[in-house]
Amino acid sequence: MVQKAKILLVDDRPENLLALEAILSALDQTLVRASSGEEALKALLTDDFAVILLDVQMPGMDGFETAAHIKRRERTRDIPIIFLTAINHGPHHTFRGYAAGAVDYISKPFDPWVLRAKVSVFVELYMKNCQLREQAALLRLQLEGGGKGAAGGSKEPSGGILAELSARLAAVEEQAEALSKQLDDDAADAAAVATAAHLERKLTGLRRALDALEPGTGGPAALPSQN
Fold first, then answer.
1. Cα(213)–Cα(103) distance, integer angstroms
2. What's the CA gap between 26 and 3, in Å, rounded?
3. Per-residue pLDDT of the chain (227 residues; tens, 9 = 90+)
4. Which residue, of 82, 112, 155, 204, is most buried by count of CB atoms within 10 Å of its CB?
5. CA–CA gap between residue 61 and residue 116 (Å, rounded)
6. Could you tell me the CA-to-CA distances from 48 to 45, 80, 174 in Å, in that order?
């Protein structure tokens, strides 16, 4: 059973959080509320999120400052941030949002369909990365456990396990290819395209490592980095 992705919604106004939940409920993911920058940072200490929707105008720690803290933490610096703002002070204000690490900057009122579509792209990328990590973990277990027989001798990796791993990886590869094509067709955000390309590179490395386990290929290869 695939675990749902978590989406962090940060806004000091309850009615805005309620509106975001109504818009994103169709994605059928886990929506987590935070009513301040401090509360958002606390949530990020314990949970992993696919994307953060962050209001700019908040009392105390505003969106820009909150984003700066998020990007300084190794655990959270790669989480995509979409800024939401009710004001527009021109290009300089927008530039400040991107400089703070946002992948997008949307002015209110926004088109609900557009926002949902943008969020869904990052959710899909997050889920594919989770699947890739699972496949890498299974392959690592096979590499560690398949190299020794019961009496300490060499043993070829189980054909059944290899076939299952290959089938699972093929499914992720197919989904990642479809997502990349969708991003190209839609002229999506540069950050989303770059993330998809990084995912494909990791898939290629994992496929090579898996192929190296096939009988007669010379033994196991090193697993690709999952960073």
1. 39
2. 16
3. 568 999 999 999 999 999 999 999 999 999 999 999 999 999 999 999 999 999 988 999 999 899 999 999 999 998 999 999 876 655 666 666 667 777 788 888 889 999 999 999 999 889 888 887 777 777 777 666 655 444 444 444 455 666 666 776 676 767 667 666 666 655 456 666 666 666 676 677 666 766 666 655 444 444 455 55
4. 82
5. 26
6. 8, 12, 25
Question: Which amino acid does the sequence have at 126?
Answer: Y
Range 111-128 burial, b when 16+ CB lie within 10 A, else e: eeeebeebbbbbbbbbbb
Q: Taking every pair of C-alpha atoms in the chain, what is the biggest distance, in angstroms?
A: 72
Amino acid occupying residue 20: L
The CA angle 90-95-100, to the nearest 5 degrees, is: 135
